[in-house]
Every structure is written in C-alpha cells, then in structure tokens.
Amino acid sequence: MKVSEAITLADKYTGSTVESELKYRWLQQIEDIIYNEVILTHKEPFSKPDPVLQRDRELICPEPYSELYIHYINAQNDLLHRDTRSFENSASAFASAFASYTDWYNRTHMPDSKIERIII
Questions:
Q1: 3 state SS of 113
Q2: Fewest CB atoms less than 10 Å from the CB: which of 6, 21, 92, 116?
Q3: d(CA 12, CA 68)
C-alpha cells in the first residue's frame, strides 16, 4: 500500500476533515514504530525508508497486513475528536492488525542474535 492510498482509504472510512499534514505525521509515527520495534529486532534489517511525505512510497507492511495503517489513522482521528466509543473500536482493530503483522514477520524472519539471548 502506498502512502496516498492509506490516507485516501482512511478518509473514505471516516469522512475525516483532519488536515493531511496530521495524517502524514500519524503514518510516520506508525512507520517508525514498526521499523524500530519489529524490523530492527531481526537479522538483516532493511534500510529505514524515506519519510512518508513521498505520496508514492510503499509503506513497510505488505498486503494483507497494510490495513493496520488505516486503523491507526482512524484511531488517531477518533482520539483527536474525543470519540471514545469509535476510538475503542478503531484501536482494537489496529491492535489486531498489528499483532497479525508482527506474528507473520516473526515467523518469516530470523530474530537478531542479541534479541535471542535476551528472550532465552
């Protein structure tokens, strides 16, 4: 999924009136979390991607896990608007999608040896 696709889909789902600049910031936040907490904990991590301000850049999570971006934007939007019920639903959907992605990544990539020693 590309940056522009994630923002467009999130807007369609929520009818959001939040400025695009804030949505780019939210996408950058979740990309940084994914890179730092998932990618860097495994052997041979790829280089940190360019900032999400490049609309045509592919996001880190591949299909079918890329829905986590939409859920993250929606959760942040709900939080911003203090819509507790919607936030709980969006945050739950995000947590489930993020767990699915991290489970897949952990199954398909070798952990870093430093991390293995800590876990064992």
A1: helix
A2: 21
A3: 15
The residues near 35 (Cβ < 8 Å, ≥ 6 apart) are: 45, 48, 49, 60
Local structure of 42: helix, strand or coil = strand
Tell me which DSSP letter residue 112 carries.
Answer: P
Q: Identify the bridge partners of residue 58 per DSSP, sorted by sequence position.
A: 2
Task: Tell me which DSSP letter residue 107 carries.
Answer: H
7-62 pLDDT, tens per residue?
999 989 877 778 889 999 999 999 999 999 999 998 888 888 888 888 889 999 99
Amino acid (one-letter) located at 5: E
State the Cα–Cα distance between residues 62 and 17, nearest whole angstrom: 27
Contact of 87 with 75, CB cutoff 8 Å: yes
DSSP state, 39?
Answer: G
Q: Which DSSP string do the residues of 44-97 spell out, in sequence order?
A: SPPPPPPPTTSTTPBPSSPTTTTHHHHHHHHHHHHHHTT-HHHHHHHHHHHHHH
The pTM assigned to this predicted structure is 0.87
Output DSSP code: residue 38: T
